[in-house]
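Hey team,

Sharing the non-specific serine/threonine protein kinase run so nobody has to redo it. Sequence (569 residues) first:
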Amino acid sequence: MNFQKNLVALIFLILRSHLALGLCIDSAGGNYTSKSTYRANLETVLSYMPANVNSSSGFYSASAGQTPYMVNAIVLCRIDAPLDTCRRCIQDLTAALLKECPNQKQAIGWYEFCMVRYSDQTIFGTLATSPFVYWWILTKVTSPDKYNEGLRTVLDSLRNQASNGGSLRKIAAGNVTVPDFQIIFALVQCTPDLSADDCNSCLISAAGDLSTCCNGFKAASMNYPSCTIVYQTNNHFYNETRLQELQFVPPPPPPPPPPPPPPPSPHGTIIRTVVITTVVLIAVIVLLRKENETEIKEELLSKYSCSFPSLIFKGSYIYLSVMTIVYIFKQDCEYCAESLDYGFSTIKAATNDFSIDNKLGQGGFGVVYKGTLENDQEIAVKRLSMNSGQGDQEFKNEVVLLAKLQHQNLVRLLGFSIQENERLIIYEFLHNGSLNNFIFDPIKRLSLDWDRRYKIIEGIARGIQYLHEDSGLRIIHRDLKTDNILLDGEMDSKIADFGLARLFKHDGSQVYTSNIVGTPGYISPEYAAHGQFSFKSDVFSFGVIVLEVISGQRSKSIKDGENVDLVSC
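Structure output:
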């Protein structure tokens, strides 16, 4: 399969004039509350962005408040869009971000004609290439090599024009004719507060990611916080007259200073110092051309009982994000003959209505059942508990990550099912269950000779190596333990349970978090004490598993009435 980088695919068919996506981001300064000074400053700075956006550059940046309650915000419109369209776009998008990210101090969102970004960190004049989103049209070109050559030519030319556009605007648009009488129309844009070099670097990076994610598609867009590339075939989507007029418009006077922020809160706030932010939701948008919408809506309606508008405006975000995995697999999956989307009634029947007799185990997020499909295929079904408060998050992680991964030492995802509050994940069934059923059982342990134990350890190591390096995604599991190592009929080990896993985009240095997750006894000391985690956190957990496999003793146990820690023995 051709899944790229750290992105989750999302079909988001908005039945109105523009396309929407918002990303909520964890902040180093924590979250804010609804009545906090930060929230007041945020509402203040966002309220005057639409009226003050520069009509000649489509850009405006402002701050409100003082540290630690300061809010920095940026808006950027496609400057070929009319000013009233730009302002409405900003108003709609800011309202959507405040609704969808009610407590995050950092967020970014895109509509078709605008971007809104705010943060408690410095964002002005700074190159940012993450998080990013892209969309593409599900139509391939007939001569991809020649098409890509033409696309590179026009993007290189536009990049040079945009990066040298000056401090008022950095935008360029143009077209090139490619084989089969096709014309590629392209538009590139940087936030004008970037230097020429940073704009150039941003567009080079975006073009590289675009060629990776969307190679051969007739239309696509790569959206960074600092720059955007859009191209379409045989569709003159930008207002060329407006762009030409802007070349001769004199610079406008500087915008008026922003209104004063609300007075600081008399109550202090405890701020945890965290040195790096973590994106909590990365998404990909698939923009569908109008001629494809009817077909796709009909297919969605055939799969789900609710009407299409309610699916968009009432259905959960998780519901929408997972639906597109079906499309991704139909387009790119070489080994799956059927859709990932299992009907709830099918799984209910396979597990005998989730009978207690079919129960295999229970974890923090739900219960696992054995099931048998009508074709006699055995499956394992995780029924997530929505009462845990993290069920949707784990559901998203499991489906999104495992859909991208394929390795002999990782449990294989077969599909998912959603109905109202039910979240089901379907895996391959592994006959020998979890590793801890063997190594901690005095009878079953006898079947594990040293060669077998070595093979199990080697399989776990290969799975970790794939997650950290070979998959191309760089994933930290964060909950490696013997419970989450499953054994197939040949006693080969497979890593399971990716509900707490995270994509890791950094160079291996540590990331800090105040939300400590995982299982005591397997968590590294620096993670447990200070919230520092990295690939080494998984390596520490692996070391504990190795000790358990060799010794047959649990990492934490009670002996003679006292707690015993295997690692410190």
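Residues 54 and 60 are 6 Å apart (CA to CA).

Ping me if you want the raw files.
A.
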